[in-house]
Amino acid sequence: MKIKHQLLLTHGLLVVLSLIIVLINIIAYRGMDSDASIVNQSGKLRALSYNMTQMANQINNQEDGVYNVTLSENLQKRIDEFDLTLKMLSDKKDNPSTGINHNQTIERLQKIIKRWNEEFKPSYQKIVQNESVKILCIQINSDIDSYVNEINEMVTLYAEFARGKVTKALVINGGLVLLIMIVTFYSSLSTNRRIRKPMQILMEELKELSLIDDEVSKKMKSINSNEIAKMTQYFNEMMFDPLTKTFNRRSGLTKLNKTLEYNHRGRMEISICFIDINGLKMVNDQLGHKYGDELIVSVIENVKQETRNEDFIIRMGGDEFLIIFNGINVAASEKVWERINHRNQVVNENEDRPYIISVSHGIVGYDNINKTEVELLIKNADDKMYLEKRYIKEELGIQIIKTTQHSTNRG
Questions:
Q1: Of all helices (H) and strands (E), which one includes residue 277?
Q2: Interior/surface letters 293-306, b for 16+ CB within 10 angstroms, e for the rest
Q3: What are phi and psi of 361, to 5 degrees?
Q4: Which of 274, 262, 266 is nearest to 317 (CA)?
Q5: Do residues 97 and 149 make contact, with C-beta atoms less than 8 angstroms apart?
Q6: Beta carbons of 45 and 108 less than 8 angstroms apart
Q7: Which of 170, 256, 262, 323 has a CA that sits 20 to 30 A from residue 350's CA?
Q8: pTM for the model
Q9: Residues 71, 59: contact at Cβ < 8 Å?
């Protein structure tokens, strides 16, 4: 798996785990809020039970008929309130925030409801109607403590269930946090290993190729693995031309030698194209280096558009470049050059530049049998390029600077 994909995967996993933690916390918070409401409503049942008993005893002890009527009305209100509270606790569908959803607690609640409907509620309603008040009060007084204890046991049972949910949420959160730490550590360790190891191997290879000296090698080894940008900058400075992003002369020729060495075994065809940008000095002198750099970059961009990943470009210096066509012969390379030259012509025709793009080239093939030396290959390609350059200059008389436009710009 590529490092980019690995980082995307691990970062995505960390985001998902973080969202799960947030979701669990939201659910736990809402559950705690609901649990608190249930405990409060259950506590209300206890308070109402004792309050109704007290009112019943007051009705039994009072002789003032008017006052008894007031107490009876208040007692009826407490009976209705008790009924409503039981309904809220038992009906989870209509009352999601106060309805109990724990089976064992629901069983206890059903017993409390049954005893209320069969014993206490009928007794209180008879007291409201002034029927057998004294006898009923005696019965209620003897049974109310056991009834309230049943309510207490139900509350305790549900409180333990609620604590268990909170504990479970904390354990899951802790596990997910630990997983996030493990994924982060693994990602950091794996990425560091996968980046640092190739970097170290590459440094050794560069050192063997004499592309870096001992001092640079030591400096690079001292760079912390987190300073990837600095390491990349060092490699870019050592291997690539800053303007065109092609291989510089030193690294490029080393790569070419390695390619030819490998080709001795594989017997693949290789073609070397020497190119020279016509009139670059004139552009620099008359238009300025800004236009000169633009001309160089345009030429190389057109080359890159028509070459493959296995091909590579070397900047030999100034306006001279090598294009290494890997795996194709001279005839095929010439066809590629025709496409490159066509791109140059398109720019000349469609873009209003104060100069034209003109490039001379010479292509030679590597001889697998005679094993031609790199220096001789480059010289042969350079000689062919020079012939074309002289023809363009002397026979065709191509003017690189657009005289009319240039004069207008100067005026």
A1: strand 270-277
A2: eebbebbbebbbeb
A3: -145, 160
A4: 274
A5: no
A6: no
A7: 323
A8: 0.51
A9: yes
